[in-house]
## 1
Amino acid sequence: MEKTNKQGKTLKLRSIKSLMIIYFTTIIVIGMLFTGISLYEKFRSTSEAYANKAVDQLLTQVKYSLDTYTRNMMNISNTLYYKIIKKQNIASNNFASEMNVIQTTNNDIASLVLFKSNGELVANSHYAKLKEGLDVTTQEWFQNSLERPENIHFSSPHKQNLFEDYDQRVISLSRAVSLNENGRIIQGVLLVDMNMKGIENICGAISEDDAGSISILAASGNMIYGDPVQVGSYNKNLSYKEDGNYTRIVDNKRTLITVKTAGYTGWKIVGTWRLDKILFTYRELNYFLIAVLIVGIAMCIVGTLFISSRLSSPLYKLQKSMKLVEEGRFDIQIDESGEYIVSHLAKTFNTMVSRIKELMQEIVIEQDGKRKKELEALQSQINPHFLYNTLDSIIWLAESDKKEESIMMITALSRFFRIGISSGRNIITVREELEHARNYLAIQKIRYKNKFEFNIIADEDALSAKTLKLILQPLIENALYHGIEYILDKGKIDISVRVNKDELIYEIRDNGIGMTEERRLKLFDKEQEIKTKGSGVGVKNVNERIKLYYGQNYGLQVESKLEEGTTIHMKIPLTYT
């Protein structure tokens, strides 16, 4: 059984260690996860905010460059019309050379062509021959110019099919113009074909990066620039969306889509960016956080193992020491070093063990004191001197033919010793203690030849109360030998017992010679030894016996004046069991 208990306590200590490891590790891991996730989310949101801002700025720059590009084309168209065509007669047909000069000085121009409203060619910049049977009046750009002459019209990218041996991909800028034909004003159409190099130069560098691409969509939704596969179906309706940033999931990847609208043309500039590419630190941050978490957990486990060992090892030693104390070993002292809590526990344990040891020693001393006082009290009853004098008095009474007195004295002596022994009991009733005192006084009264009188009074409810035995006789003996023996008048001893609430009060009063205040104060002095006649038990020993049995709140109080007598008040607790 003892081995089982020991194993159980060891398992409990080990479980405490395991619980400490589990709790500490769990708390730290949760804290690290919370901190890591919070930092990750904060970094991600901040990075996306910066990415949105950077992409927005980039597309703003593209929009600005595209607006500049288209405005330049419009300026060329305006220059050609207002400074050249409008001032000359188309019949002179001198426009071709001037158109060639303009085209040569601007690499973004693919061709410059002037038509009459009936589709007749007036002039072009590269002297190319129109395809036979071609009717330009059916071309969309041509019709739009005549139908809305107040606007400049931009077409979608297309292959130019007006001239033979010329199929360059262009964007056509067309407008209605007024022509002077021999003084007659007729309507015509000015066509400026822009090659795609300008737009490719603006957008190409960005689109080459696999992190994102730029597409340009016409207001109708037709693509002007970009890879249709790259743009995909998620971009088909963006031409109608307001400018802004949109986040979508594309091919299971978070994608940032930014939309800007070019100024005059109304084209939609669409940027698509894979966030895992532009925010490449996401993956690195993930790896970093995972590595930190793994290292942190490992350090946490090592740290908690160390801390739990530092805490549980002293507790295990404390448990072993307590087991030894439980077995009766009170010479145990454990090391008080270590953590504050453990050190405090060890210090408290050492103090407790020392205090228990002191208390046990005090109990041993107290019990020894009780036995000693009891022995002294019992020995006082068989004092040879008292017994010799009593027997001598009995012989004298018998020789003097005082039969009744001798019988009375023998009877009192028999009862005196019978109650004094009390079958080995330490606690007797008040009635028995008073009977013991009465027998003692009867013997002494005969011996002293009726030199004193005595009177014993007791409350009825006090007679059945319990009391420590042999506490009255030493006090009566003290009154006889130190008080009444030295007076000339007849002595008197009054004994009373009464109940006061939960206390039992004895009072022993004599009319002896009394004592000085100095001697009264020395009665209970442990360092003071007073030589007395009789048994030698006296007031001091009775007081010590009472305090040993009942506590320091109980005992004797002495009132005495020289030549006036002495009164002793004795207080013990009231008990009936």
## 2
Amino acid sequence: MIHEKGNISIHTENIFPIIKKWLYSEKDIFIRELVSNSADAMSKLSKLVAMGEANLGEDHAFKITVSVNSKAGTIKIIDNGIGMTGDEVKKYINQIAFSGAKDFIEKYKDKTDDQQIIGHFGLGFYSAFMVAGKVQIDTLSYQDGAQAVRWISEGNTEYEMDASDRTEIGTTVTLYMADDSREYTEKFKMREVLKKYFSFLPYELYLVDETEKPEETDKKEDTKKKDKEEEKKPEPLNNTSPLWKKNPRDCTEEEYKEFYRDTFMDFQDPLFWIHLNMEYPFRMQGIIYFPRLKHEFETMEGKIKLYYNQVYVADNIKEVIPEFLLMLKGTLDCPDLPLNVSRSFLQNEGYVQMISRHITKKVADKLSLLYKKEYDNYKKYWDDINPFVKYGCIRENKFYERVEDIIIYKTIEDDYTTLKDYLEKNKDKHENTVYYVNDIKQQTQYINMFKENGMEAVVLNTMIDNHFISFIESKNTGVKFLRIDADITSNLKDETSEENEKEIEKQAEKLEKLFKDVLGNKDLKVQVEKLKSDSTPAMILLSEQSRRMQEMSKMFGGGDMQNMFPNEETLVINRNNKLVKALIESIENDEKTEDRNLLVKQIYDIAMISHRPLAPEAMTAFVQRSIQIMEKII
């Protein structure tokens, strides 16, 4: 081959600085581009062999080797793929595949947004100049009689071509790394990057550290030691046949779990999974796992890894993965994704939305199948998956439409019910009203009262439930949710009572005055009822609207904003209770005693403790008062 020098036909020398500064958002993407090119070269040769247009020896095994040398400051990407002829080097390397290069440079040279340039460039090979001061290509085409070619450029528009000493078909790209990128010549760093992008590359990938090779100074090396080293074959870094490539019928439960543990470094088994394997209207394979989510909604962040022909692209690309699915974990390989040169950004919005809708449908279908075919397991999973399902309903209306009939609610009896069944079962007691608990320990008193009266409430105690309740109310006209300590007295009143109404009103007025006077709170709202249960002397009710407004103010404003909404707490005194009856008798006998005042304060604090935690000062007073009462008993 005749020695040749020339200029890359791009009409300007400004292209390389722009590539280095703007083309890629992550520096290590140069590795992804170059190794991906090697994989593409082997795919092309493999297709030619399959068509009978190329012949390879029986011992030809496709592989890619990345060689690093920290002493020399070099990285080599070596493949045995299709290779290039001299003319092909001129075409694919020297000519950049875009038109109007000069206009392109003028348009982007002053841009500050690196994404502006994406999609306008031709070859990922030029990402090498992000990190290298000099790039060398040695390549030999598969074609019979082809001559090996060497191409060299030092990061400007000048190049040099000559004959190469390469004897095997394929290509070696050698990078002479710039000082600010020498970290990639370290084996541990390169291994990290290769594992990130190529854990599932379809061709075997090896990493070699040339720095570690000893100099051949000892010609009398121990023969036995040498034989042992030859017997030890290097292991590829990647799994060329990831589980998602298999037919779901051929995958075992343990294989799914093992793949999950290895891929996500999560040693807690997933609950269940969805294996996607489709060819039409687009190709997509993958596995989506449902991990154990529990109630930590604010910290829930899964990881959906997106691949393009088994090459990693990015995590959690919201254009492809519906936002609510990002709480899950999984791998998706979409060979038909319209990616541009950086393999990171999506171009065809309509196509991508179609993929997103399909993923949403598959997830909803899986949940529906579990509900119908494995209801016992579905109930077991619900505590873990319900934050995900609820968030998905709020974020994606199509998802809600598919799963609205399989949303279940855990009850205070440790059973499960749908909204439809709950409303039907309780329509004679509280029509179109759903009572719920959001703190089982704090609201024990109310729960016990409900159980004693044969009433049912559901448990809604995840962080997303405040939003979910409002969402469900908006979707079901006329249905309202009330926390268990809201306005429930109408359902608890003893309707068999025939006491004189005027006498009841007088006693209620006296009790109300007593509590306001003793507690020193003239604005206290007091309600006296004769409840069916006599175990509870008093309880605090807070209107649902007031509670929601207060919680919203805490979430979004806090501080002074909370004072914008009135505190509509009501003290409900149970006339059926023994302690309250004693108070009524004390009032009627005009006994203004210290003991009566202690009892009033104690009844109030007990009601408050069941409603919400006492302030430190109030708790101290409650404890001291409890001791006083016990001392009087002795």
## 3
Amino acid sequence: MRAGQGSRTQNKGFLQWFADQKVGKKIMYTFIVTSVIPLLLSQVLMLYVISNNMKEKVDDLMVNQLVQISERTGLTVDVYTNLVYQIYSDDEIIEYMADCQNASSEIRARAYREICGKLQQYGLTAGGIECISIILEDGQDITYDFGMASAVDNLWEGYADKKSIVPYKLAQKESANLAVSPTQRVQRGGEEERIFHISKQMYDFSDIQKGTVGTVVMSINESVLNAVCSGAQDGGELYTINFIMDKDGNILTYPGSFYSGIALSEGRTVKEFVEKTGVLDGKKIAVNQYENEDLGWYFYNAYDEDYILRDVRHIQYLTIAIGILLLMVSVFLIRYTVLLIENSTRSIVAGIMEVQKGNLDVQVHVESRDEMGQIAGNFNTMTGKVQDLIEEVQEVTVKQKEAEIRALEAQINPHFLYNTLDSINWMAIEKEEYEISRMVRNLGVILRYSVDKSNKMATVAEMADWLEKYVSLQRMRFNDAFTCEIHVQPGTEKLYIHKLLLQPFVENAILHGFKEIEYGGILRVDVMLSESRDELDIIIEDNGKGIPRRIAETFNDPERACRDDKSSIGLHNAFSRMRMYYGDSASWNVSSIPEVGTVITLKIPVSEKGGAGDADCDC
């Protein structure tokens, strides 16, 4: 609990500190917090998002490039595997292989020459083939080396048992399929070369039961793979490289071929290997990978991230520079504006301090025509008017006191009037003038109802009872020239309505509607609930002389209806009271036809409780 109170105290302290700062500092702090910091953060975030999006797009392009390299590599390897299949299924070679195991040396020599000739023909159909060997089951080999153009000096001359070479061993493991051996470093003719191999076991399809009759091994220069990978690179500055690796981490081909034929050290990542080779020395390296499941090889792309994204970096630097420039301009403008405001405020505050001391002759001088200039001008005007008003107030005060004294002298106590009317009433009863007595009694009730807290509220029942007494006096006055019907819907009797709200409308109907009418006048007042039961609808209807159309239209305009235009029909005050009591919740409509009659409909909110001080009517 104490921690929460401490936090609220700190917040209040900060807000109070901010509130106590000068206007200029408030504007500057607000500008920094609401503009500078969000601008910088949004700019950093925008640059970060753009950079990441661009890197993702570059990575996608690099992976697509690796997919294309993988497809071209697969097509290239297919050329050599097709040749191996042709050798594998060549019936003549199979027959000559059988002759190579004949006891006659002449037959073996002829078979050897024929097979070498066939291998030489196959090898010339595709470039990059270094050597083709057929290793028989007894360990003999028939080899033609294209690099040395010899059937004697060849790639495998250093091996006494040709069954010990890696391609042969792999072919035995992959008896049903081709075996692709990783790139190896081999010595041939005193030079080191990088070569990979494709090998497959051979069968005599005329006598398949004999089993394997030999193994064909085709040796291909690594430059074939290197050419496919380097073909996707530009000939200019080296900013990206492509290379191939098998699942065991053997480097099948690498730019420059120096690192081809080696295995990736255990625990070393591909990125670390690329950095170690120094091909992209000093560059920020990013690596992408794609796996060719058919070959079982991984294709890699390593590129200089800074070089590839150099245009994005330039945009970032340019954006930052423009942002800093705009920020400096904004700070200068806001500071200049703050200085102008501070100077104007200082002059106005100094003027106010002088007025506070009682000096109303002070004048504030602000040369600008902005809001501060307007405030200064209004301040100067205000001080002049205040001086004039002080003098007027002094005169009015004296006159008001004199008027109050006269009013007190002329004031009549309402109870004196009530008592006097009561005495007249008893005198009328004693003389058996009961009609006069009833009129005096009704007049007393009306007077008491009207004078006692006339701005408060009464129930609808009290209002209707008072209205009946008021109309009875008016009928006597007009010699019963009209009749009056007051209908109150059951359930509305206990609702509250402002006292004397309807009196002006009823009086207007009698005085103006029935003017010069000697008989036949009908006045009807209906009080009912609206269909939604949230409004009280009051209809005052008469068959009198009516209201001119121009005046009726004026009453139906709320603004004009509440503005007293000194006309002879005194309804403006009644509508003003409705608007004062109920605001916009009250509405009305005046409909009148000259010489036919007038209908006034009033709508006010339902009120089930009266205000404080509501009078208890003695009606």
## 4
Amino acid sequence: MSSLPDIQARPDSSYPAPSFRPDIEGLRAIAVLLVIGAHFAIPGMSAGFIGVDIFFVISGYLITSILVHEQESTGKIALARFYANRLRRLFPALATMLVVSSALACKLLPEAQNLAHSEAAAMATLWVSNIYFAFADVDYFASETSSNAFLHTWSLGVEEQFYLVWPLLILVAARLAKGANLRGQVRLFTGVAIVSLAASLMASYTYPVLGFYMMPTRAWQFAAGALVWMLSRQQASRPPQTTLLSWSGAALLFAALVVIKPDTAYPGLLALLPTLGASALLLAGTGQTTQTGPRTALPGAFLALPPMQAIGRISYAWYLWHWPILIIGEYLLPIKGDIRNTVLAIGVSLLAAILTHHLVENPVRYGRSARIQNKWQIALALFAMVILNSQLLRWNTHTEKLLASTKNDVYAKAAADIPVIYQHNCDDWYQSAELKPCVYGKNDAPKTAVLLGDSIGAQWFPTLTEMHDPEQWKIIVLTKSSCPMVDEPFFYQRIGREYTECSEWRHKAVEWMQSQKVDRLFVGSAASNGFTDKQWTDGTRRFLKSLAPATKAIYLIEANPRLGFHGPSCLSKYQPQAIDEHACQGTSNDTAYAHVATLLKAVTDEPALKTFWIGTSNFVCPGGRCQAIQGKVVVFRDSQHLTGSFAASAAPYFLQQVQQYERSSQ
């Protein structure tokens, strides 16, 4: 989400800014409330991230009105003044949040988590965190960006990049159009909207992460706001039009909340709903009078209510604070789903926003600093950005050194204790659908075992190498991270689209298997991919049926329960010699895994499938208790994947089950 700079509330005297619009202030409030509702998992608000779209449209509307007014009245745009005002408006509150949140994260969060937090914070000081997050998930086992305390700064990067280029484009359009400024501006805004929207739609179905985070694929929403302003300046809406526009805008926003789901590729065509909704409400506002005049449409009257105005004024600061308080707070106590803790966290973020607004934002924006020459304002802001960036990078370096210290070395190694197959490029994740069989052992070994699965299945590779004599067995690994071994299409939340590479790869794996002579086929994958019971059962049955002719026996590996938190990070809080098995443990109450395991086990009852069940739950979580460490062996390398060392210790457990099945089938 992005909280739009409060341009219109108290415009700088040097700007020919438009008159105050209470409806815009109220629309800001709607946007920030939507985003907070989505982030705090308020029921019915899962699509609240559309607040981003609303803010981008408002930003395009107001910034364009300021710049075009200045260009038309003076023949130029004072770029130094514009950039100085933007930096003075945005940076102080951002810097305050970064400093305080970084200090809290450094004090309260495990060191392993602070590597990613410090990197993102450093990027945020330079307004490029959106680019950082767009390319952050290149490593499957890297920390997911969704838990980064500074993820929310991506939208500030998008807006600042927009501010950097938009005045230049307006100047170019004015010069090219010569006397016909209006026509040139409309062409510019329309052209930007068309090209950017086309790029956004293409990205949403190919690489949605880029479409979501990058400024060029969001520029069409800014341009939409600009076009609304160009339309509104020609002729204000009459009361009947105002009413229709107001209710249409409100209906479009409501429709977006209902229609857009967590598995929607976004931004795509559905992003038009909030964008057009915000545009309609902005256009409707031009036909309404300000504070003292009558309002003919209920949406406009609601937006002008005092509480909405108050929230709109602090929307930028509230946006800045709500996310790090949620992320850091959830490490201390459960927030999402807990009403009392949710109210507490939202209340703390609101208080922080109010204090920041009154003690930092307004004093810097309207105080003595506003009277300093523009070039010095820019120089001071850039100096502060560099200093803060350097200190955050220093935090990152300090964290790396701590993780390499004697205390944390064992846990850092555990977090990196992954099967050797990943060093051999056996797994392309979502980067391609290429099948890359990795062969271990002698090529002329008389027997062959194949391990087929996602990262949860592939984690058992050390088990197979321990339980199979390398003189007798050749082990072949086929792995695709996050690709369920279920014959069903799969929407992958992390990449924001259907995981088509998974389906293609799975089909290639089956074709490859059908050309092999396999003695033991081990199949495993996670059980938390959102399939229905029928999809799990039928999709697994179809997949196993296609594999059965290629092997003597299929061993379906139970998806182990999840720990629920990052094991090595939890253990790093203790001295190695002081840890016992009661440290960092939880109850094995993962109902999704247990339920799906029962369904998958039912598949093994079909003799034609030649499938046998390999249980793992009792080995990983004895007695229903999941522990980050058992004895001196770290069990989990994150919240769900097992360390290679622990997986290797499971060889006797696996071998016992395999031999039992083989004896019973003779």
